Records
---
Amino acid sequence: SGPVRVLGIDTSCDDTGVGVVELLPDGRVQLLSNRVWSQTVHARYGGVMPELASREHVERIDEILQDALQEAGLTVTDLDAVAATSGPGLVGALLVGLMYGKGLAQALNVPFHAAHHLEGHIFAAASEAELRAPYLALVVSGGHTHLFDVPRDGEYRLVGATMDDAAGEAFDKIARLAGLGYPGGPAISEAAMRGDPNAVPFKEPLQGQKAFDFSFSGLKTAALLAHRGGARAEDLAASFQRAAVSFLVKTTVRAAQANERRTVVVSGGVAANGALREAFRATGLNVVFPGKGLNTDNGAMIALAGAAAIRAGRPASALNGSATAYAP
Ligand code: KG4
Ligand code: ZN
């Protein structure tokens, strides 16, 4: 039999993502396309407005699907399976992609795979390397800071999570505080290049913990005090970035040692951060990051998760949960 073409859809938040991958008979997976429409209507509110997000998905999804098919050089009838994010996320936003994907699969008479958004983030790294258990996976995005141990393919053990803000949320909030704009991650990383990482002393969160949890509220408070004390935005950015990166890397390395894992997947929007990548590469662990354009929310990562489920003969994702299943 020939290749299996899998369409992936993610509309969990404010990005309309559609991508296509190809599962080859030898088990390898190839990325054929990845198209994302990033909604800009939310910028003026300083946060995502759920109702507006859903409406934009409804308006854009046809066009993004056509773009993704065109980029892949396929027509809709070439598709052999459809995968879409079923959660977690904004329910109205999720429903657009989920129902669209289900309807499409039914019309084409091909299998439908519901995917967990975090399994999608993890499988974004499958664009770069064959992803086979066992490994450890750190998902760092605007909504999640979750550390999973993956002893067997399709089995996820949550070993640590944030106790307050997600890592990306902390980048966004501190960027807003320092007047660096939105989204905060890229803004902080850019400003940090012109700042002194020693200018603002940040205390490492949860020092001495035996667990593998995360917390960013302390860094946020320290940033607010430094800002009020007159710290330069660039110095604040550089100092915060160094503290956050060090905390994320140290905690993940401890978890890798405790679980005897050599391979670590680091994914989600914050995995695009250059300083974070550099620090992880210096650990000596086998660290796998998603390819370009696959860190932040997208449809190709959902297609990759779907392809892995098909390859394993699984009917649906092991993380196919409700919208709140893994909320911190
Ligand atoms: O994965 P994602 O698109 O959405 C969620 O599922 O949450 O992640 C978005 C988050 C935002 O908080 C954004 O500020 C952060 O990822 N981000 C970054 C960088 N690029 C995006 N954080 C740090 N450095 C970056 N270069
Ligand atoms: Zn995400």
---
Amino acid sequence: MSEKEEAEYLINIENNLVSREKIDIKDKNFEKVMFLYRAALKQLKTKIDILQEEMKLFSEYEPVEYVTMRIKKPENIIEKLNRKNLSLTYQNMFDEIEDIAGLRIVCNFKSDVYKLVDIISGFQDVRILTKKDYMKEPKSSGYRSYHIITEVPVNFSSGIMYVKVELQIRTLAMDFWASLEHKLKYKNQQISATDSKNLVKYAKVIDGIDESMLKISNNIENSNPKLIIEAAEEKVKAKKFNFKL
Ligand code: 0O2
């Protein structure tokens, strides 16, 4: 397919929907838009499922504890547009709200997070728009995670459309903190300054535990000759796993 033919085969979300129109969450158009995000989420989830199975089968490497996904509730989309001081148009929804479809991968160790970021960044068909490393630079709330904004190709009857999906990759420990903080504070500004400070403090404590667990895991690997050889082989193969049939 030539570049021109390929471009024509891509469906542009803005040209196909009422982009400048005001959002009406009870309208058929809103339902259609949400269908696009649900479809993209399914596509990405399938890719992650396949990756997980491949790693388990070919490398006996199982970094992922669990994967969750969600579509943002319509009222939360409106709330986020308001929070960002944006008018409630479809255009703003497509362009400015990057986590309408969200997939979260929860891993065992910090090193697993970076390994997965590397592998997913190498997916040929998934576009990587931005990466935010809140593990290296935690938010002032104490929040730690790795975020990737992707655009996932979805095949429809008239062509391919790239739809945004936010991927959050974090450790079990980070997920524990983020889930509780989300309930206790994130959407609740009434929390006291002392409680807020304590949440930041506990995020650091949990991060210390995450580091210690990684050290133990590394110690075990380093004391096992079979694992040392595998690790050396893996370094040579860079980020690729042992894909031998
Ligand atoms: P919900 O309820 O989880 O859907 P930006 O446009 O980059 O300025 P944006 O899109 O908020 O801002 O990006 P960011 O900061 O990367 O946050 C995206 C999502 O990460 C949030 O979505 C939360 O899910 C999560 N998150 C970010 N900061 C925190 C935090 O301090 N605590 C917790 N628990 N989660 C956080 P939503 O839509 O804000 O919320």
